[in-house]
């Protein structure tokens, strides 16, 4: 059995401003740094072998803070874990997008990455990960939209009725290519005293 936890990075200034981040490299804000520290404390009661992260700084910083808290010295970065590219929409708010392209902006070709592309790189990464690290407990620090795409593929019956929260944990056990979701969008570490 392999255990994999998908973690969304900590908060950024653009999260608070409601701006589309996509592949733009935005660092964690002070709250995001604190969220990552709290998650590291929470995860220190569990056994984890490896940390992988997106190369974008908000995920990389989150992964490095978690790894340091767990005594893991090797944080591996992989570009396939990066956020879904938003094309021309990056750096804009919903109001900006509606003003610029109208309410139907999602149906326009604005250079946004396709679901097929996201799943191709994401599932390719996971297949390699499971072959190389079978039986390990692995933390993957990535991005909200990227993780949501994977969840639709890995757990099609899972109800995703809210956005993934910053530093949320969604955990799976994987046995014989069967993915079982044990925990979804959990941020208990942010509310515990």
How would you describe this protein?
- The protein is globular, with a radius of gyration of 16 Å.
- α2 packs parallel to α3 (57-70) and α5 packs across α6 (144-154).
- β2 (50-53), α3 (57-70) and β3 form a beta-alpha-beta unit.
- The protein has helices at 13-17, 30-43, 57-70, 94-101, 115-132, 144-154, 188-191; strands spanning 2-8, 50-53, 75-77, 137-142, 169-175, 178-186.
- The model has no long low-confidence stretch (mean pLDDT 95).
- The protein is α/β, with parallel strands linked by helices.
- The protein contains seven helices and six strands.
* Total number of distinct structural domains: 1
State the name of the first-level CATH class: Alpha Beta
Mean pLDDT: 95
- Spans of 5+ residues with little confidence (pLDDT < 50)? none
Shape: globular
N-to-C terminal Cα separation, in Å?
A: 33 Å
Q: Per CATH, which architecture?
A: 3-Layer(aba) Sandwich
Explain the layout of strands and helices.
Layout: E1 2-8, H1 13-17, H2 30-43, E2 50-53, H3 57-70, E3 75-77, H4 94-101, H5 115-132, E4 137-142, H6 144-154, E5 169-175, E6 178-186, H7 188-191
Parallel strand pairs: 1-4, 2-3, 2-4
Antiparallel strand pairs: 1-5, 5-6
InterPro entries: His_Pase_superF_clade-1 (IPR013078), His_PPase_superfam (IPR029033), PGM_Phosphatase (IPR050275)
Protein name: Putative phosphoglycerate mutase
Binding site for substrate: 8-15, 58
């Amino acid at each position: 059995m392999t255990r994999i936890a998908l973690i969304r990075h900590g908060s950024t200034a653009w999260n608070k401003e409601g701006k589309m981040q996509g592949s733009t490299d935005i660092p964690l804000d002070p709250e995001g740094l604190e969220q990552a520290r709290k998650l590291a404390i929470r995860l220190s009661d569990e056994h984890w072998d490896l940390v992988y992260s997106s190369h974008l700084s908000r995920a990389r910083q989150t992964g490095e803070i978690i790894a340091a808290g767990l005594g893991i010295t090797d944080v591996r970065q992989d570009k396939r874990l990066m956020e879904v590219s938003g094309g021309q929409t990056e750096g804009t708010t919903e109001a900006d997008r509606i003003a610029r392209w109208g309410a139907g902006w999602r149906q326009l070709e604005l250079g946004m990455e396709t679901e097929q592309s996201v799943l191709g790189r994401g599932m390719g990464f996971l297949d390699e990960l499971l072959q190389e690290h079978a039986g390990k407990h692995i933390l993957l620090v990535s991005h909200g939209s990227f993780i949501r795409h994977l969840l639709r593929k890995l757990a099609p019956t899972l109800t995703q009725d809210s956005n993934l929260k910053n530093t949320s944990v969604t955990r799976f056990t994987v046995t014989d290519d069967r993915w079982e979701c044990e925990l979804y969008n959990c941020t208990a570490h942010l509310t515990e005293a």
